[in-house]
Structures are given as C-alpha cells and as structure tokens.
Design a protein that fits this description.
single chain; 189 residues; alpha+beta; Ribosomal Protein S8, Chain: A, domain 1; 5-stranded mixed beta sheet; 5 helices; 13% strand; rod-shaped
Length: 189
C-alpha cells in the first residue's frame, strides 16, 4: 500500500511541476440567478392564426346581408317542404321578440334569453323582429348593411336548437323579421 501512496505523490509532484506556479483565486460571491428564459413561442403559428382570423373577418364582411335580402337557413333534417311552409307563414308563431331600438350587445343578450325561454316552455315557432336597418345610425354598419339583421342571422345559424329560419312573409314583417323553427325540448329521464 505504501508503494501506491508513493506513486500518487509522484503523480501529484509531476502535475505541479508541469503546470508551474499557481495563485489562489479570490473568493467571490456567486452571481445572482438569471431571470428564467421565456418559454418558446410558435411565432409562425401565431401569425397563421392571426391571418386566418383576418380572412374570416373579411369573409363575414363579404357575406353581409343587405336591407332587402331574405334570411334563409335549414338543417339537413328539415325538409324543403317544411321550410316552404315556414317561408309562407303557415306555421303558427307562438312568441315574438322586437329588437327595435336595441344596440348589438343588448340585442344579442335578448335573442339568447328569448330563444332559451321559448325552448324551455316548449315553443316551436317564434318571430324575431330585427328591422330592415333603414333608419338610425346604430342600425346600419359602416358599409350600409343592417347590423341587427346580420347579427340575428349569424346567431341563429350557430345555435343547436334552431332547426330552420326564414324571413317573414310581407304581412308579418317581411325582410325586417324572421320566423324561427325551434327543435323540441328533450325531456330528461
């Protein structure tokens, strides 16, 4: 064992002679921890999303309805014949909501609440009077399109409880109102 210690001391001496004289380092405080690096971001994906949102907004603007345009929509399970009956006003309207004088935020809340209540009470057909957008600065968009009419059109198309809708016949408001056919409420068992 002493032979191994001698070898270790010889190696240490050989090392010291190879590197030459050394000076001890000053004791310094450890540097403060650096701020955590930000998480990587998918910048290209963010730009793609922003571009897609912009394209969607432009598509909506391009598809806006004019004052005289008729609203019309039906789900696949609704027959064209039933939509024709709705269009002619042959389905009895059970409730009505008049949006005249409402701004867009108020109109959106009113439509949501109205349709929810109608469905809760088993109402099958309703009329929403949105106006034609011919009067009042708040009812006409910068491009001249009726604001509430387009709002109602978009809202109704995205609701699961709306089976079909069509602008009312002239005697019931024409293109200033829409008749909405609602899905029957399912009872929970």
């Amino acid at each position: 064992m002493s032979e191994r210690r001698d070898d270790d001391e010889d190696d240490a001496e050989l090392f010291r002679s190879a590197i030459g004289p050394v000076r001890p380092m000053r004791d310094t405080a450890a540097p403060p921890p650096s701020a955590p690096k930000p998480r990587p971001r998918a910048r290209m994906a963010e730009r793609d999303e922003a571009h897609a949102r912009e394209q969607f907004r432009h598509a909506l603007e391009d598809s806006l309805l004019e004052a005289g345009d008729a609203l019309s929509y039906r789900r696949d399970e609704v027959t064209p014949r039933l939509l024709q009956k709705l269009k002619r006003g042959e389905i009895a309207v059970q409730e009505e909501l008049d949006l005249h004088g409402a701004d867009t935020r108020e109109a959106e809340q009113l439509v949501r609440a109205f349709l929810h209540d109608a469905r809760q009470h088993g109402v099958g057909c309703v009329r929403i009077v949105h106006g034609k957008g011919l009067h009042g600065a708040a009812s006409i968009a910068s491009g001249g399109q009726p604001v509430l009419k387009n709002l109602v059109d978009r809202m109704l198309r995205h609701r699961a409880d709306v089976l079909a809708f069509h602008s009312a016949p002239p005697a019931q408001g024409g293109t200033g109102a829409v008749l909405v056919l609602l899905a029957p409420r399912r009872l929970r068992s």
